Amino acid sequence: MSAQEDLFDGPAVPMPAPGGGSFGWEVFSAEADAAPVAAPAPVRHVEGYAPFLAFARERGASPADLAGDPLTLLRFALLHAAALNEDARLRAAATVFLGNAIVALRTDANWRAIGAGRPAEVGAGRMSFDVGSILDAITAIPPNSAGTGAGSGTVAGSGAVAGSGTPPPEGAAAMLAEWAAAEQDDARDAAEQERRLERMRAWPAPQPAPSGAPRYTRPALPASDYSDAAGQPIPYGNRWGADGPDPDSYSRVSHPERFAGLHTVANALIDYLEQAYAVSVWRESAVPDAPGGGFDPPLLHAQDDVVEVVRVVPESPDAASLSFAFTAFPGVFVEAGVLHTFPHPICGCDACDDTAEAQAVELEELVLAVVNGAYTEELGSGPGAEVSHSLVFFDENGAQTGSRSGSGGAPTTVSAERLAAASATLAALPHGWRAWPRRG
User: Does the residue 149 lie in any domain?
Assistant: First the structure.
């Protein structure tokens, strides 16, 4: 480390090793014998930027001013783009300096290496920035184009976007300022996430099924081979390599019939629930001339191609009900409790590369978590309140096998009256939904 590298808080240290460090928001997965893994100390001040300090001083710029104002720093990089592009050592130093300056914007930010190629990324909360990409976007613009809107677009690998017509330094700086201002909100959300994870870790195991009680067994799924337009077999579930999906595949859905088995799985689950638990079951057809047909299904996320809805309601008011909406796609939407709908598949496009087997597992995990009482829903307060959910999965012996949680804005299709009713229901369930009562 150079003695000059003391511009940021704390001692300058080497770049973190690839794979180390985290910006939080990890998904908890329970493993019975897993040992705690010690997280490496966060890196906030990386060494190696002395050449950039000397370069800035030679050109009459104050390094402290550059470090304290991202817009000033990015404009300086734009002005001296040619020099930064010609000298690899200087460019590397400028990248480290920029990363340190971004980290300094938030007390919870840190560095994380991302392997070969890019030197590292920085971030905190739900957002991170590929520092090299930001510098690439800035230095790719000729200085005389600043203010003209040339080159607007993505300036960072993780969401740094300069709006149309906005010069990259201004667009990137505005994005960084918005991220910096979100520190308190991110800290609150992280604390809430950790609270949910702690509750899931301590979730009580479900009571074992009585001797002779019905057990669920997945029905056999139809086995089929699918081919592309050239006649080549499509290995769904393992279709894309390291380069990721074909860009065109996001707007293409081939062989949706491969999900037909989800209807079979959903019906098997419904039959199991009716046999094993004290419930009422209603089947409603969307076909006008069918018994009970012609209804307008009151789903949280209404679907145009729903052909049938099956509602399974446990006798206990403290247990979450389940509604299965069968679609012509084919797929199954499961509405659990009062606020959440879980689609299977969630998309179905070629890029997602889902398989019926993987979707069947997720469908079964959801349903069995709900009936075991290992499901919670929460609704925030005030305008724009978020809704969240947590699910914990158990095997037949009562051991936790994993968990899943998520949060987001309340569905826009839900009326204020329904949200108010949901809020009242959840307020009476401080420990989440309870397990379904079994048949005597």
Answer: yes
Domains identified in the chain, total number:
2
Pairwise CA distance, residues 162 & 419, whole Å? 36
Region 399-425 average pLDDT: 83
Ranked by mean pLDDT, which of 108-112, 273-277, 396-400, 428-432 comes out on top? Answer: 273-277
Residues 272 and 218: their CA atoms lie apart, in Å, by 10
Domain co-membership, 253 together with 393 = yes
In angstroms, the CA 360 to CA 220 distance is 11
Give every CB contact of residue 42 below 8 A, 6+ residues apart in sequence: 21, 110, 111
Helix (H) or strand (E) holding 34: none
Same domain, 115 and 145: yes
Q: Is the pTM of this model over 0.70?
A: no
Question: Domain residues for 132?
Answer: 1-194
Nearest to 425 by CA among 299, 337, 343: 337
Confidence check: pLDDT of 65 > 50: yes
- DSSP, collapsed to helix, strand or coil, labels residue 259 as helix
Question: Above 80 in pLDDT, residue 8?
Answer: yes
Q: What are residue 334's phi and psi, to 5 degrees?
A: -110, 120
Note whether 33 and 112 are same-domain residues. yes
CA 237 centroid distance within chain: 20
Pairwise CA distance, residues 269 & 117, whole Å: 48
CA distances from 90 to 11, 45, 64, 100, 276 (A): 21, 18, 18, 15, 69
Residue 125, domain member (yes or no): yes
One-letter-per-residue 3-state SS of 416-427: HHHHHHHHHHHH
Q: Quick one: pLDDT band at residue 175, thresholds 50, 70, 90? A: very high
**Token pair of 54, please?**
């000397």
Residue that the structure tokens 């990409």 belong to? 133
Mean pLDDT, the chain, whole residue set: 82
Give residue 387's pLDDT: 87
Neighbours of 96 (CB within 10 A): 25
Q: How far apart are CA 334 and CA 398, in angstroms?
A: 24
Separation CA 116–CA 314 (nearest Å): 54
